[in-house]
TrEMBL record:
Domain Aspartate/glutamate/uridylate kinase: 8-217
Matching PANTHER family: URIDYLATE KINASE, URIDYLATE KINASE PUMPKIN, CHLOROPLASTIC
Encoding gene (name): pyrH
UniProt xrefs under HAMAP family: PyrH_B
Protein name per the record: Uridylate kinase
Coiled-coil residue spans: none
Residues that coordinate or bind ATP: 13-16, 56, 60, 163, 169, 172
Enzyme superclass (EC): transferase
C-alpha cells in the first residue's frame, strides 16, 4: 500500500451523532477514541486536518426538543452543543498525542479561540488539527454549510463527509440489499437523482466552488486512511 497521501489538506465533517456510538444521547468515550485514532493515522501521514463538528447528539435547532422555540434561539443552542463536542474531541486528541485547537464562530474566549482564518491556516501548516465549532455562527445554517464554508476558506483539497454508511447508494442499503454503492457521482447527477448527500445549501456551495466531496463511513476501520490515500473507499462527488 502506497503511503503517499492523495490530499495535502482535508476538511472532515463529523456529525454530532457520530460521537454517540450506540448510545441514544451524548458522547460515547470509546467511539470518540476510535474516531480520533483514525484522525491520528492521517495526521501521521503528514495530512493537514480541519474538522467541523455537529451537535445533534446534544441539541439540534430543528429537533423535536426545540418544537415551539424561536428558531434562532434553538439554533444558537445547537451551536453551543457543537462547542461541547469540539472540546471533547480536543481532549481526546490531546490524550492521543495530537495537538488540536478549537476555534469557535461564537465568542467564548474562556474555552475556545475566536475563528480567525489566518490563524487557522497557520495552525494547519504547523501540523495542528483545527476543530471549527459553532457552525457558521449564524442561525438558519447547518454545520454542513459551515463545513463547506470552512473548507473553501482553508483552501482544502477535498471535503470528507463522515457518515454511518460507507458511501452514497442507489437506495437505502439497510432496507434494500440490492442497493449499489456509487464509486463516483457528479454534483448534477446527485441532484437529478435526489440523492441526499448533504444539506442543499452546502451542496450548492461545494458545486459552485468546485470543492469535491467524499462520503464514507467513519465507523469502518481504516476507512479515513484509505480515503486519504486515494483508494476506492466511499463515494466521490465531483464537478
Amino acid at each position: 500500500m502506497s503511503q503517499s497521501p492523495a490530499y495535502k489538506r482535508i476538511l472532515l465533517k463529523l456529525s454530532g451523532e457520530a460521537l454517540m456510538g450506540d448510545d441514544s444521547y451524548g458522547i460515547n468515550r470509546n467511539t470518540i477514541q476510535q474516531i480520533v485514532g483514525q484522525i491520528k493515522e492521517v495526521v501521521d501521514l503528514g495530512v493537514q486536518v480541519g474538522i467541523v463538528i455537529g451537535g445533534g447528539n446534544i441539541f439540534r435547532g430543528v429537533a423535536p426538543a426545540a418544537a415551539g422555540m424561536d428558531r434562532a434561539t434553538a439554533d444558537y443552542m445547537g451551536m453551543m452543543a457543537t462547542v461541547m463536542n469540539a472540546l471533547a474531541l480536543k481532549d481526546a486528541m490531546t490524550k492521543a498525542g495530537l495537538i488540536a485547537r478549537v476555534q469557535s464562530a461564537l465568542t467564548m474566549q474562556q474555552i475556545a479561540e475566536p475563528y480567525v482564518r489566518g490563524k487557522a491556516m497557520q495552525y494547519l501548516e504547523e501540523g495542528k488539527v483545527v476543530i471549527f465549532a459553532a457552525g457558521t455562527g449564524n442561525p438558519f445554517f447547518t454545520t454542513d454549510t459551515a463545513a463547506a464554508l470552512r473548507g473553501m476558506e482553508m483552501n482544502v483539497d477535498i471535503m470528507l463527509k463522515a457518515t454511518k454508511v460507507d458511501g452514497v447508494y442507489t437506495d437505502d442499503p439497510k432496507k434494500n440489499p440490492d442497493a449499489v454503492r456509487y464509486q463516483t457521482l457528479t454534483f448534477d447527477e446527485a441532484i437529478s437523482r435526489n440523492l441526499k448527500v448533504m444539506d442543499a445549501t452546502a451542496f450548492a456551495l461545494c458545486r459552485d466552488q468546485q470543492l469535491n466531496i467524499k462520503v464514507f463511513s467513519i465507523f469502518k476501520q481504516g476507512a479515513l486512511t484509505r480515503v486519504v490515500l486515494g483508494e476506492d473507499e466511499g463515494t466521490l462527488v465531483h464537478c
